[in-house]
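Hey team,

Filing this mostly as a record. A colleague (T.K.) asked me to run one chain through the structure pipeline before their review meeting, and I want the input and output archived in the tracker in case anyone asks later how it was produced. No errors, nothing strange. Just documentation.

Input sequence:
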Amino acid sequence: MMSHAAYVFASYGIAILTVVSLCLWVIADGRARQRELRELEASGVRRRSAEVSSGETR
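Output structure:
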């Protein structure tokens, strides 16, 4: 039978592992989205929020 302390440490361990995993996933996903944005901008696609330079139309 599991002692109280072992249960608490196991629960904290699982919670910490879950939070760290989610943080790493968010960071990796954010970097992937930034890379996609750079690729799109390099190919000429612009954001709607970007300022219109002279000679361009929306």
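Quick notes for T.K.: The chain has one helix and no strands. The two ends are 69 Å apart (CA to CA).
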